[in-house]
């Protein structure tokens, strides 16, 4: 039992060292890591040795410190591959993007999170920089996130919001749980969700639910664009997104990422 506790704490320390290097950026020293973690310097050096050997960190002689290693990038590529939908779904998102001139994206359930599975955008029609495939989305502030929250079971909704909170991200981000509950009720009634100045200042969007074989919401398709453009084209965009979500709901299960339905 003692060896299990030791192994567990060693793993935890190594993970904290990786996080400290990521937060500090290239060139952080062992002493700086030790101060940041309030950890003895010899302990930090032991963790650094293992992480260097395994490729999770690299030593940067030019700045006489440490940086993230390339195994970290490999892990992220593996994650995005696991949540990426099949070509049929990606083609549908590209069709939306090129057809209406807006960034298109798909969200799915993964474990206890609502995750961006794929983004189709370009320099002329960008998606928000913070919206990255393989990463959780701010569900309370994005149209697709709100769609999926609206159909979550109450216990799962409460657990997700307790964990993630309702951080204010932009001028119109929903301010509290009561306001969010009213918004989710409206979304269930309308069958679509809208965001305006909620996720990123100056950005708006609309999304609609994708249904799985069991009839439960398994994902959401949305578009993002400038608030000014959205105001002029809101109903066109909503129609396109609803139609795309209906088409996606008819695709075979194997076209979808290996994600959890309703966790």
Give the tags:
two-stranded antiparallel sheet, 5-stranded antiparallel beta sheet, 263 residues, Arc Repressor Mutant, subunit A, Beta-Lactamase, alpha+beta, 2 domains
Quick summary of this structure?
The protein is α+β, with helices and mostly antiparallel strands and 263 residues long. It contains nine helices and seven strands.
3D architecture notes:
This protein is of the alpha+beta class and 263 residues long. The chain folds into two domains: 2-68, Winged helix-like DNA-binding domain superfamily/Winged helix DNA-binding domain (Arc Repressor Mutant, subunit A, Orthogonal Bundle); 81-255, Beta-Lactamase (2-Layer Sandwich), CATH 3.30.450.40. 49% of the residues lie in helices and 18% in strands. The protein is built from nine helices and seven strands. The protein has helices at 2-24, 30-37, 41-54, 70-83, 87-100, 143-150, 154-164, 177-190, 227-249; strands at 57-60, 65-68, 103-110, 113-120, 193-196, 203-211, 217-226. The strands form two sheets. A five-stranded antiparallel beta sheet has the order 4-3-7-6-5. A two-stranded antiparallel ribbon has the order 1-2. A hairpin with a 4-residue loop joins strand 1 and strand 2. Helix 5 runs antiparallel to helix 9. The longest helix is centred in the first third of the chain and has 23 residues, at 2-24. The chain is elongated, with a radius of gyration of 21 Å. The relative contact order is 0.12. Mean pLDDT is 91; it is low at 1-7.
